[in-house]
Amino acid sequence: MRRSEILISVIVVVAILAVAGFFVWPMLSALSGPDGGLAPVIVMIVGCFVLGGALMFLLFYSSRRGHDDTVYRGGRDDSGDGNANP
User: Fold this and answer.
1) Is the CB of residue 39 less than 8 Å from the CB of residue 45?
2) DSSP secondary-structure letter at 35?
3) What is the spatial distance between Cα 83 and Cα 77, in angstroms, rounded to a whole number?
4) How far out from the chain centre does Cα 55 lie?
């Protein structure tokens, strides 16, 4: 990708987030009561992103290390000696 394409992509993403934030901001004012309802929402959102990122990391790590090759091949051994690796 060229530098201009990356810059345009970043500008579009920031614009979409700004428009979404404009519409969501008034809804969040209902959560900022005396019981502090906004903090749990923020913790939940951050926690979901952390959990999703950790699971994606484990998925890619497992795939790169070959831990799921036997499952992908359905238990077959493609090495030619006829024995499936456990």
Assistant:
1) no
2) T
3) 6
4) 8
CA-to-CA distance for 72 and 50, rounded, in angstroms? 27
Q: How many CA atoms lie within 13 A of 58 on its CB side?
A: 6
DSSP character string of 11-50: HHHHHHHHHHHHHHHHHHGGG-STT--HHHHHHHHHHHHH
Which amino acid, one-letter code, is at 17? L
pTM to 2 decimals? Answer: 0.47
Q: Can you give the pLDDT of all 86 residues of the chain as single tens digits?
A: 688 899 999 999 999 999 998 888 887 776 666 666 777 778 889 999 999 999 999 988 888 887 777 777 776 666 655 555 55
First-residue to last-residue Cα distance in the chain = 43
